[in-house]
Amino acid sequence: MNGRVKIFTYGCQMNDLDSQKLYSELAKKGFLPTEETKDADVIVINTCSVRQKAYEKAISNLGRLKAHKRVKPSLIIAITGCVAQQEGEGLRERMPHIDIVLGTHQLHRLPDLVNRVHRHSLPVAETAFSDCIPFLDTIPGAAFSNQPHRAYINIMQGCDNYCSYCIVPYVRGREISRDYRKILDEVRLHARRGVKEIFLLGQNVNSYQGGMAFPELLRHIHGIEGIERIRFTTSHPKDVSDDLIACFRDMEKLCSHIHLPFQSGSDKVLKAMNRHYTHRSYLDLIARLRDARPDMAFSADVMVGFPDERDVDFRDTLDILESVRFDVLYSFKYSVRPGTAAAELGDNIPVEDKVERLRVLQAMQKKITIENNRRRIGGTYAVLVDGNSQKNSEQIYGRTSHNAIVNFTGATALIGEIVSVKITRANPNSLTGEIS
Ligand code: SAH
Ligand code: SF4
Ligand code: F3S
User: Fold this and answer.
1) Is the N or the C terminus of the chain less surrounded, counting Cβ atoms within 10 Å?
2) 3-state DSSP call for residue 14?
3) Which atom from ligand 3 is nearest to the alpha carbon of 49?
4) 49 alpha carbon, closest ligand
5) Which string of DSSP letters, residue by residue, matches 178-224?
6) Quick check: CB of 26 below 6 Å from ligand 2?
């Protein structure tokens, strides 16, 4: 069988990369991507389950596809990723128009299963966990990367941390690290393709154990010719070692930005979350990173309304915002995830309180972000150009080492190049500059 495929992607960067790989693997079997749902012969919903809202989005999108299938009975519908893993066969029972349910360790099987469903019209659900995940080693074809100068690479999958609120260990499985030789081979391949920036992905990259420790892996990548920038996500604060901090001191290709989720500023809440650090040790870690790399920029995740979070706990969270002064903060209302330890604690913070805390926190962060951005005015930064600006056809945009987005006037031919840009204006979520 061949035809057109459309993949809807929800969730984290890991899921974005999985979708890229799925497009790439399906293309080898003759399926070409399409933007249009109505033209698709195969539709894949690659799902996230980290919050109730993400889960509901996946389910409502699936619901909408029922009508498409009625109009086009040959349409093959697959649900992949974390919701598929969580619900398994049960999804098909609730929504019989789904043909394929594919868990997070089984994604490599999608092309074969699509053909099997096409030939025999028999639905399948495959959600077994395994000790090795073949899809980790899949390298997407250059044509399927959204940005040819940047490559996202899986170095591990799964998580052993069991933060009490989090469903990820249950839907991605235990931590599995990819062999360092495969990672380095992949980096070299990307370097030959002209990639300049390597972005390493894992739920908790600091605990990477694929034949060497994470800082050592970074040093090896640093030595590969052609690669000019290295980034990674996500780091757990408890696992940021002195050696990793030393990498920021020593490795110029390592970008001046780290995403370091703190979740809460209250020691009581952090303990109940099973996070293994304190308000104080988090701020101390930030100080040590700043000491190693004075222009370091920080981003983080935080949530409000964890069970028993009182006003004093919330004030401790605001204190972290004020002390660290993140450039970017992703903030969420806590939602109960089935099967997690925190689900046993109930959900005793009224939704109005969660909404109000989120409002206060986001207002404070908005101010900090714009103040941080203003401080960049007059400075000159190396910007890796990502693409044409959507708002202004004469402008292009890219990212500085500290991960700020900069818009400036320039030729399309500069996409993929690193150019020097002087900052002239600060916007709420980006900077404006001119080539210097
Ligand atoms: N592995 C990463 C990302 C985990 S999921 C890490 O450990 O940082 C991304 C973010 O979703 C988390 O950092 C957390 O802020 C948020 N999150 C996870 N579970 C949640 C829940 N039950 N309710 C609300 N937000 C949640
Ligand atoms: Fe979830 Fe915690 Fe693992 Fe991150 S470290 S994926 S928040 S269990
Ligand atoms: Fe979501 Fe799964 Fe990523 S739950 S955040 S898509 S690991």
Assistant:
1) C
2) helix
3) 4
4) 3
5) PPHHHHHHHHHHHHHHT--EEEEE-TTGGG--SSS-HHHHHHHHHTS
6) no
pLDDT in tens, the chain (436 residues): 789 999 999 999 999 999 999 999 999 999 999 999 999 999 999 999 999 999 999 999 999 999 999 999 999 999 999 999 999 999 999 999 999 999 999 999 999 999 999 998 889 999 999 998 999 999 998 888 778 899 999 999 999 999 999 999 999 999 999 999 999 999 999 999 999 999 999 999 999 999 999 999 999 999 999 999 999 999 999 999 999 999 999 999 999 999 999 999 999 999 999 999 999 999 999 999 999 999 999 999 999 999 999 999 999 999 999 999 999 999 999 999 999 999 999 999 999 999 999 999 999 999 999 999 999 999 999 999 999 998 888 899 999 999 999 999 999 999 999 999 999 999 999 999 999 9
CA 144 – ligand 1 centroid, Å: 28
Helix (H, G, I), strand (E, B) or coil at 227: coil
Tell me the ligand closest to 202's alpha carbon. 1
- Ligand 3 atom with the shortest distance to the CA of 167: 4
Ligand 2 contact, 174 CB (< 6 A): no
Bridge-partner residues for 194, per DSSP? none
**What's the 204 CA to ligand 2 centre distance in angstroms?**
7
CB 51 near ligand 1, within 6 Å = yes
Please answer whether residues 173 and 56 qualify as being in contact, where contact means their C-beta atoms are separated by less than 8 angstroms: no
CB 261 less than 6 A from any atom of ligand 1: yes
